[in-house]
Amino acid sequence: MLLLRHASAGERLSSPGVDRFRRLDEAGRITSRQLVWAYADREITKIASSPFPRCIETVVPLAASLGLAVDQHWELAPDSELDDVMTLLLDLPETTLVCTHREVFEKLLGWDAPCEKGATWVLERNGSELVPALYLEAPSDVRAGQRQAV
Hints:
This protein has helices spanning 16-19, 26-38, 53-66, 82-91, 102-109, 139-142, and strands at 2-5, 46-49, 70-72, 96-100, 120-126, 129-136, 147-149. The chain contains 6 helices and 7 strands, in the order βααβαβαβαββαβ. It has a 7-stranded mixed β-sheet with strand order 3-2-4-1-5-6-7. The longest helix has 14 residues, at 53-66.
């Protein structure tokens, strides 16, 4: 499973109610287009996303290139409970790309795990657990061959 943090969307807005509508900035739109080639060698059969515009916009070019719909899930929103996130992730196929927020990464992997905008963790299943196996830098950095094993 690929767990992707949404691409760059500028600065956080004044309140959570307003911030939920924040969209990708120019750098984020470039990253979202680069995901098409960055993940061309990976089997992706499903795309799940937080319903926030910055997450959906991050995966739309990739979904279009693969002929897939973007399934929106409130469990992937920043204020979701860990149990809800885990239930969803464990129900999804292993070939799913999931786009979400820093807050969800922190709940799943801890606050000290890297999760730069546009970067991805490859998660492997181990029974009822998801184990981080490989951190993939954002696509602009992947071109330079920067991948980290954990």
